[in-house]
Amino acid sequence: MSDPEKGGSQYLVLEIPDEELLFAIAEDGRLDDRALDALESEIRDPGCDSGWAAAVALTIGRSGRGSSVGVLSALRQRLATSGHETEALAVALAIELLRPRPGPQVERADSGYRFVDANSGQEVFVEDPIAAHWHRQGRWGPPIRPDHQRSPLVLKPHTDLEAALAFARDGGIVLLTFRPDWLGRPAAPLRITKAGLARDPQLSALTRFSRVRSVGVVERRGRSLLAYEPRGEALVVLPEAEVWTATQLADLLGRLLNDARS
């Protein structure tokens, strides 16, 4: 790694032995909220190695879980104040990667990333073989990260349950549309992902499956409706879907919920 200079370029190389790379990529692909919680816990330790902490931060950043911003920001500050400025820049990159669509200061490269810090103007190149794997697939990270660059799969009457499930498990966004309400007003679609579900396009209010207690069908005014219960919150009852029955939809969500628990 080069010494940091204002406006200068720095390099960080994350090395993984060739014989371990396939396993490391597979582990990245299987990341879930429990694993991310464990990684966050480890980098809270002020005695952890700076290079290792930067690598873990990038793993967390690639996963795109917005709630990780606090622990990554604290790590960045700790590294910067202890003189590990290159690693702190890498963590700044990881923070930017948390965004659903990282900004132009981040570039995907064949071997990793190029990042320019907006505040200092410093540039860092990160060689990361796991990131390179996802970049070759045209994506920012593993399936736990919803892939906004891929066209969503809109549920149709003929859509196969297994196909929709596989699409979500691979990082795609499954779009469920609803019938207008009794006044004819349209209802926001539901976006279903491997990580969770939300009704806003940016998934900023994503309810993660790791926080869902149950999924099922409730009866309201003679209609069967899909419902789910986030931990510590009221039951969410969704409008009537345009396609699929509430039972079919509960099956889809229930299997994704089971994935998060397994």
Explain what you see.
It is a single chain. With 262 residues, the protein is of the alpha+beta class. It has two domains: 9-136, no CATH class; 153-261, Pleckstrin-homology domain (PH domain)/Phosphotyrosine-binding domain (PTB) (PH-domain like, Roll). It is built from eight helices and twelve strands. The chain has helices spanning 18-29, 33-43, 50-63, 69-81, 85-97, 129-136, 161-169, 246-261; strands at residues 9-13, 106-109, 112-116, 123-127, 153-154, 174-176, 190-192, 196-198, 207-208, 212-220, 223-230, 236-237. A five-stranded mixed beta sheet has the order 5-6-7-8-9. It has a four-stranded mixed beta sheet with strand order 1-4-3-2. The protein has a three-stranded antiparallel beta sheet with strand order 10-11-12, with helices on one face. A hairpin with a 6-residue loop joins strand 3 (112-116) and strand 4. The longest helix has 16 residues, at 246-261. The chain is elongated and about 65 Å long.
